[in-house]
Structures are given as structure tokens and as C-alpha cells.
Amino acid sequence: MSWAPAFLSNPERFMAFSRWAAPMFGAIAVILGLVGLWLGFSVPDDYQQGQTVRILFIHVPAAWMSMFAYVCLAGASFLALIFRHTLADAAAQAAAPLGAAFTFLALVTGALWGRPMWGAYWVWDARLTSVLVMFLIYLAYMALRASLDDEAKAARAAAILALVGAINLPIVKFSVDWWNTLHQGASVFRADGPTLAPVYLWPLAFMGLAYVAAFGSLWLVRIRGELWRRRAEAAAARAARG
Amino acid sequence: MRPLLALLARETALAWGRGGGPLVAVGFYAGVATFLPLAIGPEPERLAAIAPGAAWVALALASLLSLERMFERDYEDGALDLLALSPVPLELTCLAKCLGQWLAAGAPLALAAPVAAIALGASPALAPLVFACALLGGIAFAFVGGIGAALSLGARRGGLLTAMIVLPLFVPPVIFGGGALDAFASGLPWTGGFAFLGAYAAAAVAVGPLAMAAACRNALS
């Protein structure tokens, strides 16, 4: 995606691109999601987890996206802070609620899976705690943006917070390796190949791609909305000046 | 070096004297520590189990108290503008502010922490480690808290916002310090958690002033 900032840094070009890209990603997300769900419901029960294995097709991609959205948020914040680019700032602003929503989904589906499997909705292990901290950082980011009246100042303050909070990302990712957690370690993206059974890999792959496409589509829609809002405000300010 | 020492003296004196001085911090700390047995129940064995952790959590909450005025007062009366214009880099000014905050709030709280832990029923043998953890954790709380205070400059309800920004970032030191105390209390090796706490404090000292200075410049722009 390194080409994206350079190519899309022109707002006009971005608007022209996102105009068709947003609905296209949305359609891809729906198709892949339907296939993924159908596959997810047709796989055999797991010998240990039984029916609850199907929760993982919702939970695991949501957890991936919670981190991916934070990478996007931090990257866009970095670009906005260094180059003072309004589009990057709009992208950061648009990514935060999406990331918070995916994180919330991951936490809730994880709790629903944990109750039958671990016997508890919640345990305070490193993976769960660090993801919860990430959720709180998303909330703090949105709260900070909302409570500063000067939009330019709010944008830069929030960007600094997003970069400080990025310290949590490696903790989330490697918590299962650094600490002995109840949450299992990585079983898909591993150097020695996935340890997940292939029957479960396919629905997971479809759902993962569907989540990525959904995030891309929603992100573009939200950035577009944010740019329109700013244009409308600028136009209103111009009209007020006369 | 001389201007830096003068700054440190100024910040410490201000932090010592202003609204949330050491007395208020320690008083609040004592208040929270008093609440815990009332809420949890006064059975000594139950209290003793949670005493180190409770003393530690109360410490994190008490260090939130004086954060709000850390930059806000200088921002409102224009002193922050002068500090930003001075030959001392703003990063070092922020460092001095955090050290002043630590001397005025963190260190008195560290003295009060063992007392609170023992009053809640922790073994007196734990007292030195509680003190050391509180002293080291206080550095982390001051430098991370400063980031939150600087970011919420000029915000509506700045104090609440500071707490919301800072509390998730307080989670690692609370875990490491609580882990070290818990391990010591049950006779396990505790140096790991303590070392992690020190590492977090060191990282906060390294990163905090940069973020604080950036946030102050943004607020002043």
C-alpha cells in the first residue's frame, strides 16, 4: 500500500478513485462474506470446540482488523503530523471509530467463545488485556478529538496520541509469545505454515478478505464524508464572510 | 545546566505549592485506601491478599490528581509561551516539569504507599519493595501523565480527558509493579516485574518529553 499515499495525496484524485472504489470494495466484501459464512456453517464441528469453532470465523478476522485499523490510524497520523496533509488527517479521523468497532467485535465474540470453551467470559491474560487497552486508546483518541474546539489543534494532538499509543501494537501482537497466556498463539500467519486444519482455513481466509474489503470500503466512505464535511464548512465560512 | 536547575526548582516549587500539592495527593491516597476495606469487607485474610495491589492501584489514581494543573496554569497565564521561547529546548522544560511533578507528588506518595499497604494488612517485609516500586512507578506516572496533560491543553473538561488518555497507558506499569509485589508476597522471583517497571519508566522518560513538547507547541500555535 506504499503507493497509496503518493497516488491519493491529491484530494481530487482521491475523490475520483474512491467514488468507484468504495462501492466496489463493499460489493467484494458482501460476496466474500457470504461465501465465508456459507463455508463457515458447512464445515464439520471441531473435535474439541464443537459448534463454537464457527465463532472464530467472526472473531479472528475482527481481531486482525482491530490491529490493522490501528496501523492505518498510526500511519495516517504520522503522515498528517509530518506533512500536515489534510487528507491523511481525514483518513486518521475516519479510521478510529472503525478500529474501535472491530476491536469491540473481537472482544465481544471472544467473550462469547470463551464462556463455553474456557468457562469464563473474560480472563486477564496478556492478549485480552492488551486488546482492551487498544480499545481504550481508540476511545481516548476519539474523546481527545471531540473535546478540542480548534480542529487543526485537535487533529495534531490526536495524531501525537495515536503515535504514542502505537507502542501497544507490538504488545498486542507478541503478547501470546512473550507471556504464557490462556489465549492461544498465532496459528495462521506463522513462519512454519499454518497449524490450523485446512477445512477451517478456507472459511477463515474468505472471512478475513471480506473484513479487509469491508474496512476498505467503510474507510473510503468515511474519508469521503469527512472531506465533504470540511468542504461544506469552508463554503459556509466563505459565505458568512460574504 | 544552570537554567535547567532553575527551571527544576521553579517547577518543583510550583508543583509543591499549587492546588494539587503533596498534601492533597497523599490525602486523596489515604482516602482511597480507606475506602477499600469498607467496600471489600474488613476480614484480615481477604484484605491481606489484595493489600499490595490495592495500595498500588490507589497510587496510580492519586498520581492522576495533580496532572491537570501541570501545564494548564502556565498555558493560561502565558508562562508556557515564555518557556517555549527560552533558549532551553521545550523538551528539557517538559522533562523538568515532570521531575518537579515527581518530586512534589510521586515521592511523597511513595513514602505513603508502604504505610497504606501495611495498614491494609500486607506483611511489613513487603514495605521496602512497595516503596521502591512506588518511586519507580511514580516516574512512569509523571512522564506518561505529562503527555496526557499536555495533549488536553485547552480542552473542555481537561482533567477528565487527561484521565481518559492516561489510564490505558498506566496499565503496563500497574501490571508490572503489581506483578512484582504479588510475586514477592508469595515468595516467587520478583525481579522480572521490577525490571520491566524500570524499563517502562526509562522508556517514558525517553519518549515522554518529545511527545509533551510536540503537544505544547501544538497548543501554543
Can you walk me through this structure?
The complex is a heterodimer of chains A (242) and B (221). With 242 residues, chain A is mainly alpha-helical. Helices cover 79% and strands 0% of the residues of chain A. Chain A has helices at residues 3-8, 11-42, 55-83, 86-118, 126-147, 151-165, 168-178, 198-241. Chain A is globular, with a radius of gyration of 20 Å. Chain A starts with a helix and ends with a helix. The relative contact order of chain A is 0.17. The model of chain A has no long low-confidence stretch (mean pLDDT 88). Chain B has helices at residues 2-17, 22-40, 44-65, 69-77, 79-85, 90-119, 127-151, 158-185, 191-220. Chain B is built from nine helices and no strands. In chain B, helix 6 (90-119) packs across helix 9. Chain B has 221 residues and is mostly helical. Chain B has one domain (2-220). Chain A binds chain B through residues 81, 129, 133, 136-137, 139-140, 143-144, 147-150, 153, 156-157, 160-161, 163-165, 167-168, 171, and chain B through 147, 151-158, 161, 164-165, 167-169, 171-172, 175, 203, 207, 211, 214-215, 218-219, 221.
